[in-house]
Amino acid sequence: MVNQINLPKQANNGLGNHLPKKNSKPVNRQGVLAALDIGTNKICCLIAQADDEHRMRILGIGHHMSRGLRNGSIVNMEETQLAVINAVHDAEKSAGVTVQKVLVNLSGGYPNSQTVKLEADVNGQEISDKDLRRILEQGSLTGHHLERRLIHSIPVGYSLDGNRGIRDPRGMFGQRLAVDMHLVTAAVSAVRNLTSCISRCHLGLGSIVVSSYASGLATLVDDEIDLGVTVIDMGAGTTNIAVFFDGNLVYTDCLPIGGNHVTNDIARGLSTPLAEAERIKTLYGHCIPSTVDQHEIIHVPQIGENDPQHTHQVSRSILVGIIQPRLEETFELVRSHLEISGFDKLSGRRVVLTGGASQLGGVKDLARLILNKQVRLGRPIGVLGLDDVTAGPAFATCTGLLAYGQQHNVTSHRTDTIKNADNNGFLSKISHWLRENF
Questions:
Q1: Which of 404, 405, 13 is nearest to 220 (CA)?
Q2: What is the pLDDT of residue 418?
Q3: Which one, of 343, 29, 303, lies nearest residue 156 by Cα?
Q4: Together in a domain, 336 and 437
Q5: Do the domain assignments include residue 387?
Q6: Residue 290 to residue 281: CA distance in whole angstroms
Q7: Chain CA centroid to CA 36, Å
Q8: CA 315, CA 284: separation in Å to the nearest integer?
Q9: pTM of the model
Q10: 106 closest CA partner among 260, 237, 261
Q11: Are 132 and 19 in contact (CB under 8 A)?
């Protein structure tokens, strides 16, 4: 549903963040960008810089196991802080630079999408940047609530005197200018915990970006964004949804279910430790049964058994029987949320799966059956310098943060070269952390 809001004629002093671009893609040509993906299972930091051809080139990579999050939300601040510090330090050491500001993703926080229609009188005058800034800034103010924090305010379509389909009204004449604004909000507590974590690590916050939005920027081609596509970012703790249409993000949602739920199901079903369940899922997991599953035997270590030779033997068909219902539930929830939102048809017949959990065998085929759409696996595109590990779907969100930062000219504001003192920044952050927590 689109809510309509009329705006006063008086202009505000703030600047709109989403003026229509004269060039196709604004580029950060000088500053270094630092992206920080804070996930349930891993925390990844990428440092990059645009080259002469406006392509992002990776300078440094750092990732560390995450222990302080559950379902995309911080549940242990100290564990999360320490993992962030280690990941950022590894990336800084690899890149040979020190960063002060990072772009961060938001995986949890119960994001909510809504579209509001804003209108303003222009009294027959030529529409200028000032008019657009005024109406877009009012859209940003509309999204503020006591219990919700505005994350994104994106104009998805302009109209002038009732004429719709206008992408850039500047230079045109009319009486009444309107814009449909897509507002994405999240729970204040989740955003505060995230910003507090970054602040305690003595890092500045460039922008917060919804995970599925960042993943879409990393994996989609222009035609998909224009014609309509659904991005399903399958993480360890959450499954994030984003719908793109006509060049913009038009809907986003988050399900508190992910790859860790599959691991937990395996651990319970086979009575094996969580670490072994993750290993079995990675090596033998599949969500589509086959005729040979019954004949393939898996050795499963049992909980509490000290003898490594004491294992339980199960057929692969039992493992598939545990995995398949959970993935079916996930895609059925995605389909239900898309249908309820009304964006199922608008997103067309294209689905892009990304995220670490999308790499499980048979996921693409199962998604195709349940969603009844064309499905492909999304990997980061347009970024140079990724190695074999970071070029996969599990790192789509982090590379998408770089794309967002490049488009919105968010820099780290510091590019000091590290000389003979690679550990200075790391030790400084650790000492600050120790002083604050002990």
A1: 404
A2: 36
A3: 343
A4: no
A5: no
A6: 16
A7: 11
A8: 10
A9: 0.86
A10: 237
A11: yes
**DSSP calls for 364-404:** HHHHHHHH-SEEEE----SEES--TTTTSGGGHHHHHHHHH
Q: How far is CA 298 from CA 152, 259, 320, 323, 366, in A?
A: 47, 20, 12, 15, 23
- The vertex-68 CA angle with 67 and 72, nearest 5°, equals 105
**Is 326 part of a structural domain of the chain?**
yes
DSSP of 166-197? ES--TT-B-SEEEEEEEEEEEEHHHHHHHHHH
| Domain interval for residue 321 | 222-380
Residue at which a domain ends, from 380, 413, 430: 380
Compute how many other C-beta atoms are within 10 angstroms of the C-beta atom of residue 223.
9
Q: What is the dihedral of CA 292, 294, 296, 301, to 10 degrees?
A: 150
User: In this structure, are residues 416 and 97 in contact, taking their beta carbons and an 8 Å threshold?
Assistant: yes
Does one domain contain both 239 and 201? no
Phi and psi angles of residue 396, each rounded to the nearest 5 degrees, phi first: -65, -40
Residues 6+ apart with CB under 8 A from 137: 12, 14, 15, 16
Quick one: CA dihedral 413, 417, 423, 428, positive or negative? negative
Cα separation of 57 and 259, whole Å? 30
Half-sphere exposure for 390 (CA within 13 Å, toward CB): 24
pLDDT at position 30 is 55
CA dihedral 352→357→361→365, nearest 10 degrees, is: -30
**Residues near 235 by Cβ (< 8 Å), separated by ≥ 6?**
39, 40, 41, 72, 107, 211, 258, 259, 355, 356, 357, 397
Phi and psi for 313 in degrees, rounded to 5? Answer: -100, 125
Let me know whether 361 and 429 are in one domain. Answer: no
For residue 381, the model assigns a pLDDT of 94
Dihedral of the CA atoms 162, 164, 167, 173 (nearest 10)?
A: -30
Asked whether residue 169 is assigned to any structural domain, the reply reads yes
The pLDDT assigned to 135 comes to 80
- Helix or strand or coil: residue 215? helix
d(CA 149, CA 194): 12
> Cα–Cα distance between 100 and 204 in angstroms, integer?
6
- pLDDT per 10-residue tile (average), the chain, 438 residues: 43 43 45 93 94 88 93 94 96 93 93 88 86 77 74 90 86 89 93 96 95 97 95 97 95 96 97 96 95 94 82 94 97 97 91 97 97 96 89 96 89 45 48 50
Closest to 87 in 3D by CA, of 33, 32, 48, 34: 34
Grouping H, G, I as helix, E, B as strand and the rest as coil, residue 131 is helix
Residue 82: its pLDDT value, please?
Answer: 95
